[in-house]
Amino acid sequence: MRFSDSLLLALLYASSVSTVPTRRQTGQTSLPPAVISTAGGNIPNAPPPPTPSNATLNDFQIAEFLENMESAFFQAGVKNLTAWGMDGYPANTLDVVSRVAAQEQVHVATFDNLLRHFNTTTIPPCRYAFPVSNTAEFLQLAQVITTVGIGAVIDLAASVADTDPALLQNIASTVTVEARHDSFFRQALSLVPNPAPQDTRISPLWALNLALPFVVPKSCPLSPSARLFPAMGVLGRMTGTTKTITFTTAVNVTESMYIGWVNQANVPVYTNVTITAGVPAGIFTTTVPPGMGGMAFAALTGQMAAQDVGALTVATVAGPAIVQDVGEYGG
């Protein structure tokens, strides 16, 4: 699903009702020498290809929105980790997070300069609120945010490969660095750094919906437009022989609905929804499919026909929900 297919985020999260204009902003962004040194490199200096498609420029606006959030999260982390302390974590944690923060600034500037080069409006950062108050919570959320970002960049790379292959190098070289970040955070949490043979591609619309809880409402000077889904969260899971998981959502769930599971480079898998008598509305269980590993994404849907994450996004009723280390309790 392309970013240009989405609808309502600007109406709810921008400071004024507006859509994202194009072909308005020129000039180039530069980074301070200290950031370049810490990151280990600068914004790519290879000349951009000829003018890309409008859909790709829209994709880059969404990518900048997401990278802005990652950059803010890690810059705040650098400031907080010293105060929180790092006892029990790798001795180089602060150094690694400092490098991650600087590299995310390079990623933001890379998308920003691509948009500026093509005279397209850039997306400034919003204000954010991250629910972390200690090192453990920071590393746990860092691993989630990074994995979501990886999934979104995989989708961006696939889209660009179809429409503007000359831009693929910038995208591919970014997602590999994001994967290294994710591996460090997992290892710092004593998790297996490489839990699956493939990472999981998610749609940009899913990534935006997963990012919204960290955005302070009405704090965005300008936002990409996007369709909002009702949230869905993991309420509880069982690791025994039943292999079930419990979700909660504000949607009126019925047993004619399904959970669509997206994991690694596989087609979506669907499981039936079960509603237990006497349980509050919106709480339901389903079976965890076998054969999954790493982080999976689950969405409530009314169909079982969608064969890729783009089609499942179109058919999403609520979600997606993040299911971490799904292989630990999938069959």
Shape: globular
Helix content: 25-40%
Major sheet strand order: 4-3-6-7
What's the helix-strand series?
Answer: HHHHHHHEEEEEEHE
Please provide the count of β strands: 7
Rg from Cα? 20 Å
State the separation between the terminal residues, measured CA to CA: 30 Å
**Major sheet description:** 4 strands, antiparallel
- Structural class estimated from helices and strands: alpha+beta
Spans of at least 5 consecutive residues whose pLDDT stays below 50 are 1-26
Put simply, the count of helices is: 8
Strand content: 5-15%
What is the typical, i.e. mean, pLDDT? 86
Description:
With 331 residues, this protein is of the alpha+beta class. It is built from eight helices and seven strands, in the order H-H-H-H-H-H-H-E-E-E-E-E-E-H-E. It has helices at 9-13, 33-39, 54-84, 93-117, 135-163, 168-188, 204-211, 309-314; strands at 232-237, 244-249, 258-262, 269-272, 283-287, 296-301, 316-323. The protein has a four-stranded antiparallel sheet with strand order 4-3-6-7. Strands 1-2-5 form a three-stranded antiparallel sheet, with no helix packed on it. A hairpin with a 6-residue loop joins strand 3 (258-262) and strand 4 (269-272). Helix 2 (33-39) packs across helix 4 (93-117), helix 3 runs antiparallel to helix 4 (93-117) and helix 3 packs antiparallel against helix 5. The longest helix is centred in the first third of the chain and has 31 residues, at 54-84. It is globular. The two termini are 30 Å apart. The model is unreliable at 1-26 (pLDDT under 50).
